[in-house]
Amino acid sequence: MNPLTGKIALVTGGSRGAGRGIAVELAKAGATVYVTGRSVKGRSTLDFPGTIDDTAAEIRSLGGTAFAVRCDHTNDEETESVMDRIWQEQGRLDILVNNVWGGNELAIAYKPFWELPLLHWDHMFQAGVRAQLATNRFAIPLMRRQKAGLIVHTTFWDDYKYTGHFYYDLAKNALNRMAYGLATELMQDNIAVVAVSPGWMRTELVLAAFNTDEDNWHTVEELKQTETPHYIGRAICALAGDLAVKQKTGQVLRVGQLAEEYGFTDLDGRKIPPFRLG
Description:
Helix content is about 40%, strand content about 15%. It is α/β, with parallel strands linked by helices. The longest helix has 28 residues, at about 120-145.
């Protein structure tokens, strides 16, 4: 039996990148996965590659169970509706992966704060931090009813080092603190809350930026230490299957360190160490 058989998971922002890799790995481990996002078949955000329908189709092609649910997580009614559907159809929610993020819709230029447009706040905080906060707001009551659950925020962390982009750094640290605060408030409900930090992922957008693909990335020197989005997916599967995961609640966990602890690898069999800034 797969370790997550019978578990119900929700992955937000699952059209591409980390969300897609996480959703696929959770399904491969046996979970029934709900995938949310704004990109649907025939209508992708900014014409980016990938949709929630593509993710669900990939999962089904592997023999898993997935449901694609269009949701703009900046709209609280739509977010609440997703939770209502999961409760009506499954009667429980075991794993929530908060991955929705609006930061990719505005080019990240590494300039001083005073030279950056305030629009970065809207993309990273409204469509990122607040969207994840609201998802928690409507998901936690489901988990509290069953007195169990795991909430994961995808983030970035390198021991307090500054990322070089003011808004990105601020937003990611807000997510880390959100995980800590929720972990404290949910301590008596047997619900673990963690933030998980991947390294530099070869997402569809990263590969496109380097004019390469997953078959040829090895030829690009800058991508030699990158990892697939499945690496963080396997990290989250390991956490979800760990009966002692509550001991990690409130922490920021790095994928490379979790690979050493739990013994998983990336798709190519490598254990990529934690990404370091500078």
